[in-house]
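Audit log entry. Action: structure prediction of a protein-small molecule complex. Ligand: guanosine-5'-triphosphate. The ligand was supplied as SMILES and no pocket hint was given, so placement is left entirely to the predictor. Protonation state taken as written. Sequence taken verbatim from the request; no trimming, no tag removal. Recorded inputs:
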Amino acid sequence: MSSGPVPVHDRSDPMPNPIPNPIPNPSREPNSMLPVHVLTGFLGSGKTTLLARLLADPGMGHTAVLINELGEVGIDHLLVRRLEDDVVLLESGCLCCAVRNELVETLADLAARRAEGDLPAFRRIVVETTGLADPAPIVHTLMTDARLTPHLRLAGLVATVDATLGEGTLATHPEALKQAAMADRLVTTKTDLADAATRDRLAARLAALNPGARRFEASLAVAPSPADLFEGETFSIGVGAGADVAAWLAAEAAHDPPHDHRRDDHRRDDRRRADQAHADHADGDHAHGDGDHGDHAHGEHDHGEHDHGEHDHAGHHLHHHDPQRHGDRVATFCLIADAPLDWDVLTRWLELLLTARGEQILRLKGIVNVRGRDKPVVVHGVQHVLYPPQELAAWPDADRASKLVFITRDLSRGAVERSFERVVAAGAG
Ligand SMILES: Nc1nc2c(ncn2[C@@H]2O[C@H](COP(=O)(O)OP(=O)(O)OP(=O)(O)O)[C@@H](O)[C@H]2O)c(=O)[nH]1
C-alpha cells in the first residue's frame, strides 16, 4: 500500500551540527536496546493516517504502537486497524504533561514483558503523541529517565506538517513550531490538497526552521516507507537546528525534578482506582467521575471546569499537569448523543460550525451512529476543513452512542452544545 519515499531533501553530505546535542543519550550500546520512535505533528496534520498506512506495510512488522489522544474518548486506535494487542491507547491527557509518567511506566512494562517472553519480540515501538504535545519533555524523558535508558533508546522523532494549513499553524501555534523544529524527519502531508505555491512556501519555511531534518511528502497516493521514518540508530537533533531547540531541551533538564518513587506509589494507587473505573466503564456503567453519561439528556458529557483532558478515568485531577503547556485557552470536550443522528442534519451543522468557528476549532473528531446505518461513521474536522467521513467495519464495543470530541481555543463547550441539541432533536424526529 505504501509507495516509495519522496525525499525532498537529500542529506547525503550533511554539514557538521553547530549545536551539540545538549542531553547525551546514556546508551553505550545503542543497538542492543529497543528503539522508540516518536510520531508527532499538530492536531489533524495526518499522524494517524500515516501510521495506519505504514502499519499495512510488511516493513512495519513487529512494531508495538502506543497512541496518545487528548480528550476522554479515544478514536485514533479505531482507525489503526491492526493486531489489537500491539496497540496501546494512552488516553485522557497529553504525553508531554498529564500522562508522561504513564508513558514511562507503559514503555518500561512493554520492555520488561518482551524480555520475559510475555509479549512477542517486537523490534521497535512507535509512540504517536497528541497534536498539542510539546516534544521537548517527551524527548528529554525518553533520553534520560533511568527506568527507560537501560532498555530503550530514542531512535527518531518524526513530525507531520499539513501542507494546506502548515504555514499558518507554524505561525500561530508554538507547539507545532517546536514539533517541526525538533524532529529529525519531517513529513509534509496532504500534498494532494495543496497547490504548488503553497507547498513551495511551506517547504521553504521548513528548510529554514529545521534544515537538518530529512523531509518527505505524503498524500492520499504516496507516503514515505517504514524504513524512511522508523529506522535509525539514535535520535539527534536535526543538523543545523535552531539554537532554540537546545534551549528547550536544557529547560526540560532544569525543570525535571529528581525521580521520587514515593510519588510513584501514589500514582500506582491512582492508576489502580482508574483501572477499576475504566473496567466499570467498559461494563456499561458510564461513570466518568464528575460526568455522568446516564444524564446526557441534552446530548452532552459534562466535565465541568477541567476541560483540558487532564483527569484520569476515575475523574481524579492529575496535579502534575503543567497548565502553561497548552495554556488556559485550549479546551477539550466531548458531546454525546445516545440516539442515532440524522446524517444530513449533522453534516450541515458541522460544515456551518467549521465555517463560522474554524479558527477556534483546532480539531473535531467523532464516531457517529447514523440513523439507518449499522456501521459507525468517523468524522474529522481540522480548523475550517471537514474531511470525508470514514465508515468503520464495526462498532468497537456495545456502546452505540455518538461521540464528538472537540479541541478548541477560546471557544467554550456551551456555545457548541446549544446548537448540537438541535442536531440531536432532529435525529429523534
Ligand atoms: N486528502 C488527504 N487527507 C488526509 C491526508 N492525511 C490525512 N488526511 C485527513 O486529515 C484528517 C486528519 O487526519 P489524522 O490522521 O486523523 O490526523 P492526526 O494528526 O492523527 O490528528 P490528531 O490525532 O487529532 O492530532 C483525516 O480526515 C484524514 O483522512 C492526506 O495526505 N491527504
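Audit: result stored. The pocket of guanosine-5'-triphosphate is lined by residues 41, 43-49, 76, 131, 189-190, 192-193, 218-220, 363, 365, 380, 382, 387 (CB under 6 Å). The chain has two domains: 30-255, 298-428.
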